[in-house]
Amino acid sequence: MKRFWFPIIVGWLASNGLAAPEPKAALFEEARIATPETPLDVLIFRGLAKKNIRPTYCTDAVFLRRAYLDIIGTLPTADEARAFLNDPSLNKRCALVDRLLERDEYADYWAMKWSDLLRVKAEFPVNLWPNAAQAYHRWIRASIRDNKPYDRFARELLTSNGSNFRIGPVNFYRAMQDRSPEGIAATVALTFMGVRAEHWPSNTLSGMAAFFSQVSYKPTREWKEEIVYWNPDKALAAALLAAAPATNAAAQPGPATLAQKGPLVGLLPDKTKVKLPPDRDPREVFADWLISPQNPWFTQALVNRVWFWLLGRGLIHEPDDIRPDNPPSNPAVLALLQREFVKSGYDIKKLYRLILVSRTYQLSSSFPADKIEQAAPLFAYYPLRRLDAEVLIDAINKVTGTSDLYTSAIPEPFTFIPANKPAIALPDGSITSPFLELFGRPARATGLANERVNRPMPSQRMHLLNSSHIQRKLESGPVLRQILNPMRKQQEIIEELYLTILSRFPTSEEVTKVEAYMRSGVVNGSEAGLDLAWALINSDEFLYRH
Amino acid sequence: MNGKNGDSLNPVPPGSRLTRRMALRQGLCGAAGVLLADRFLTSARAQPKPSVTPKAKSVIQVFLWGGMSHSDTWDPKPDAGYDYTGQFREVIPTNVDGIRLGALFPNLAKQADKFSIIRSMTHRNNGHETAAYLMQTGHMPGQRLAYPCIGAVFALLKGYNAGYKGLIPPYVVLTQPQGRFSEAGFLGSRCKPFATGGDPNASRFEVEGVIARGITDQRQKARRDLLQSLNTLGNAQPGQPELVLARDAEQQAYSLILGEGKDVFDLSKEDTKLRDRYGRHTFGQDCLAARRLIEAGVPYVTINYPGGWDTHSNHFQTMNRQCPNLDQGLATLLQDLADRGLLESTVVWCCGEFGRTPKVDWQPPWNGGRNHFGNVFSVLVAGGGFKGGQLVGSTDAKGEEPKDRPVYPIDLLGSIYELAGIDTDAKLPHPEGADARVLDVREAGAKTAGRLKEIM
After folding, report:
1. Which chain B residues touch A543 with a CB distance below 8 Å?
2. How far apart are CA A224 and CA A208, in angstroms?
């Protein structure tokens, strides 16, 4: 893959002596026209050329912030920002991607995203219970940290047996409101195939349900423990029970009746009929079909999801509404990603890297407003997206040096969260804070991507602009206090605030504006510094991935 | 002292008259909203139903988290013996013949003509989160869908879908969110309640995000200008649809922060004597704030009682401490709403997620506590079309089972929806397009004994 990577030539603009672009644009986008570099780019740029779109690249400062937020859900520190911006090496963007993929926060952040899909939450609407949620999350995070091949990840979720407290992945079968075979099948289709089963003909779902008809649950003597296991007799027992009233006689579950039922037959979503051998867990039969390289559903759903996460929109959109009448906007890109993903042995990090080092990912977020909607499915620009609730509060805590209190209403001793734990690392959707609830943390009820809503609401703006919660952080945060040290030069304070909060140096125009505010006499010196920090935290540049 | 409630139609002090007129003006959009809601619903119905102007424009819900004992309060059983009554053997008459309350409620006793008590509320669910879900959504817990609670349904059908344009969100909770179950369910974050935070009994009710400590309006405006001039990314991308949404939200936020809208939270605009009557404690001032909110047109306000009622232990001490505040605040709220002519258009309902075991648990570690009890308990309802001075249903001699006329959650919520003109069979928007109704008697396990026609 390395051979596709050509560094962005940062000095290009200066050395070619072109007329300087207007300063605002230079801050966020480079002046030259972007050109395709990787095979993926070639396919995207072909679509752009057809519409006469000539995209531009984002600047280093924008890329730095974008990469941190997209890959690890965490802001760079001022020092990290300064080091990257001052680094003269030509392949520094690529090197940054590689570094970030190995950070601990990578596992935290993507475990959070997967926990949304896999509905990791102790209570409501499903009672998973606290230590089962912890075990589930622990397994998910470890899988992501170790870059477990995705086919194995899926297979373990689908075929595990055992205690909800001890075997994390069995909670997949518990974290759903409808545990009937059809309910399980619908959840499996949504999670691993990106399909909403209600769009299927009814026999497709009932045929698939056969594979999950022997999933059983039983309690133990330990409070809230539950065993998920394969029970080959379950379907027959249920069938006999159903048949009993019809015969209007006392049910006699004898061998004859069992034999009459015959072997279980499952119908795969690709319409293949499978006779299920009595000595094999039908979930394994399904899982092996699902993860086979010949099955386009499995890889399509995953690569599309990753594309959605990184570029704000699925090639098939929404990412969990895949159906024949909702085709991909660029089928060739989807096919390329699937091919590469299978070739890599289902290596998730390689897939991330393939996208992250492409020119497509490095496009500017600026685009003419009147054409922005038509250009969205072409991926002509990087779309603005408000930071997720957890990422936002972590960013605010990081730049101020403060922390938040996260609690669960469930009276079990699993809710004492160390003060320095970031919100992206919370293991359980029931452990929360008013801020997270206000800013649209998903309820983890359905596993749908659209459960997370980042549409701005007035009450959220009020909170950021004017709440005691945020104001206290500004006034008492040790990081800010250190920056606003009155012994420092004003120039230095401004620069440090910009680097800390926006991960870039201020422009001279901005410095002039800030100095004017500090001189205006509306507020005294230290308050003026706080107001600057307040304004930067409330700016679109801070609040939006761009 | 509250015996003087009868003459509280006394002259309104000049300060509060202005407030009231302002509040009425703000309330206009609320009234228009109700009309719009009606039209919306009528057109959405498959079969036209007899059109009746809804009596209830707004709802104040007082929720007693943890579950308040019914037998010590609104369904006393003085003859059940010490193992049942504990120290609360005394009952008091009310201003309605035949209705008696526990002695901890002398103020409510003077208002009994304004409210009715359902003594046969039942759902037989003893888990906090599931019982609270049942009581506030009317749906059976453990089903496939996570339904919104009644406040969130009002936020949608009486708020956003009904052209509600108020600056204050249509569903407000005083002061802390309930947690434990997701109030908005599948309706999503827009229908979540706005939790005020702060303490209305403090010298200044610091509503989170609306009223900040130590920031003058002058600095507030200067900061706003600074933000606008330094918003470099936003200024470089004018008209960006994503940022247009942000500007709208910001503008609305500022119209509360810097505008008159926030006056609704300024309880100092009320007559001090009235504030005293509500009680100088958080719950009393919660009630006053709730009245001001519904005056301003907010369709649904929940008071999440500041203090728990989950009295497994320390039961009698907790009741002695909390009941007088509940009594004072709630009684004054009913009187005040009636004085202002607002009671007939405002439903007030008060209960917990369940009652508590009528038999005291004297064993350690409870040492005189009461446990969860969903078999039967009491609910107070008033206003908005509910008749006062009535008892609905009754319990057996010890308050352990409904004796007649059981009332299920679906019956209670269905009655409130009906009074507000909300069709309980209306479809709610579900992200997966599932068939989800406001209420659904066809759900597995759902029980109904009919709406509260006897008091409507």
Report:
1. 246
2. 30
